């Protein structure tokens, strides 16, 4: 990876980390306005070229080892993704496996795919991406992603074409610890064992590939043993017997997939041989998003969090990069001075400025405030300055794995032998 590209991707992720200093609920409740960077077309094209090269170098079914966090469908819901990152941290301190459907439906497909691809370009072995049925040009045209690109960047088709090319090389599956298969949808009658999936050639540009379609469009069914055509119009419904036979022939123990909304974010079926993961808040906010924490091939834990109300793009401030080829945003200090002045109703022509209000104690790295008028105003300033002067660092460290009440919402998985 070129040094300039690496620096841009790193600086972009540092900024994303900085906005996680606020609680995600502050963004969803509109107490704090989310500020997202608008990457330039040049930066996006460079990043797409880099990840396309990485995808091309990977096998159709990638081998990966635990521990890792498995993320289901995100569908452009930015706050759900930010919540996950705030809990589990960034690569390379945390390894992620995404089950596809990063884009469409929600209003922030561009930001989500940019963050995931930036992480992939910097840490390819710590970020594994499996292709979903929405990472196709036809779906992006119908379900919102390409319309979003047009809104942000105009009618130029260069970006959609570059995304389509990158998508076409994304692997179709991943095997964790030589035991657990991850795909987006499931299996169909043509998918007899894992070697069938491994043999599918790429790039895949449409749904004319029957094997790929079965992998990305199929769903489990408790009411049949083998297969039936899916009511989605593509793919199949597959039963417990069909999956058990596939796993036995493939010398695997479990299938983990996304593709379907499940009320509690995680759903276990078929005696523990199948798990569905869905990581996006539903518009109704009745269901809960979840991710699956895989500590080892025999140890799985769900992490389920409350649904987050979706925000609209009009609720977000877009920050334009000041340089075309590298990540650079306008200096935040002028915004901070304006915000403090506005909060205090201080006229800009007076001699009182935020710099006379705030002094920095460098020896203890604390923030000390001079007395001004009332205690209420002082508390407001403290809150505002702390929120706007956070120090950005990528030495994040690995957070403690979730424990306690959250895990009690769903039992630890007990793996069954694949008869």
How does this structure look, described?
The chain is of the alpha/beta class and 419 residues long. The protein has 2 domains: 322 residues, Metallo-dependent phosphatases (Purple Acid Phosphatase, chain A, domain 2, 4-Layer Sandwich), CATH 3.60.21; 57 residues, no CATH class. Helices cover 36% and strands 17% of the residues. The chain is built from 15 helices and 18 strands. It has a 6-stranded mixed beta sheet with strand order 2-6-7-11-13-12, with no helix packed on it. Strands 5-4-3-14-15 form a 5-stranded mixed beta sheet, covered by helices on one side. Helix 1 crosses helix 5 and helix 3 packs parallel to helix 8. The longest helix is centred in the first third of the chain and has 17 residues. The C terminus is likely disordered.
Kindly state the mean pLDDT as a whole number?
81
- Decide which structural class fits the backbone: alpha/beta
Q: Look at the structure and name the CATH superfamily of the largest domain.
A: Metallo-dependent phosphatases
Span between N and C termini? Answer: 46 Å
Strand order of the largest sheet: 2-6-7-11-13-12
**Total strand segments:** 18
CATH architecture of the largest domain: 4-Layer Sandwich
Helical run tally:
15
CATH class of the largest domain: Alpha Beta
Count the domains.
Answer: 2
In what range is the share of β-strand residues? 15-25%
Major sheet size, sense and barrel closure: 6 strands, mixed
CATH topology of the largest domain: Purple Acid Phosphatase, chain A, domain 2
Share in helix: 25-40%
Low-confidence stretches: 332-419
Shape: globular
Alpha carbon gyration radius: 23 Å
């Amino acid at each position: 990876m070129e040094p300039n590209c690496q620096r841009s991707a790193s600086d972009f992720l540092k900024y994303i980390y900085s906005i996680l200093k606020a609680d995600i609920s502050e963004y969803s409740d509109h107490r704090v306005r989310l500020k997202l960077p608008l990457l330039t077309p040049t930066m996006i094209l460079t990043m797409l070229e880099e990840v396309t090269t990485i995808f091309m170098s990977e096998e159709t079914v990638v081998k990966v080892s635990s521990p890792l966090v498995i993320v289901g469908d995100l569908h452009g819901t930015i706050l759900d993704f930010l919540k996950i990152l705030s809990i589990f941290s960034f690569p390379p301190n945390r390894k992620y496996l995404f089950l596809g459907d990063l884009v469409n439906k929600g209003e922030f497909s561009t930001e989500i795919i940019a963050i995931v691809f930036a992480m992939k370009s910097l840490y390819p072995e710590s970020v594994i991406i499996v292709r979903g049925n929405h990472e196709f040009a036809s779906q992006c045209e119908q379900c919102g992603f390409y319309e979003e690109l047009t809104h942000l960047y105009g009618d130029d088709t260069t970006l959609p074409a570059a995304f389509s090319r990158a998508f076409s090389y994304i692997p179709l599956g991943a095997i964790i610890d030589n035991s657990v298969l991850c795909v987006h949808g499931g299996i169909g009658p043509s998918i007899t064992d894992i070697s069938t999936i491994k043999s599918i050639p790429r790039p895949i540009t449409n749904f004319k590939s029957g094997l790929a379609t079965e992998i990305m469009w199929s769903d489990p069914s408790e009411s049949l043993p083998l297969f039936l055509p899916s009511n989605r119009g593509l793919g199949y419904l597959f039963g417990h017997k069909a999956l058990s036979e596939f796993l036995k022939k493939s010398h695997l123990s479990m299938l983990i997939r996304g593709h379907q909304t499940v009320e509690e974010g995680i759903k276990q079926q078929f005696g523990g041989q199948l798990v569905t993961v869905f990581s996006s808040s539903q518009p109704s906010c009745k269901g809960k998003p979840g991710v699956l924490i895989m500590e080892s091939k025999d140890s799985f834990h769900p992490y389920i969090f409350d649904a987050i109300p979706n925000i609209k793009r009009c609720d977000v401030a877009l920050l334009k990069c000041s340089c075309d080829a590298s990540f650079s945003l306008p200096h935040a200090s002028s915004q901070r001075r304006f915000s403090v002045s506005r909060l205090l109703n201080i006229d800009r022509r007076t001699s009182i400025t935020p710099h006379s209000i705030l002094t920095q104690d460098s020896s203890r790295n604390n923030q000390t405030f001079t007395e001004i008028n009332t205690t209420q105003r002082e508390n407001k300033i403290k809150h505002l300055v702390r929120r706007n002067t956070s120090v950005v660092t990528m030495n994040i460290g690995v957070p403690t794995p979730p424990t306690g009440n959250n895990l009690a919402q769903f039992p630890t998985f007990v793996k069954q032998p694949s008869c």
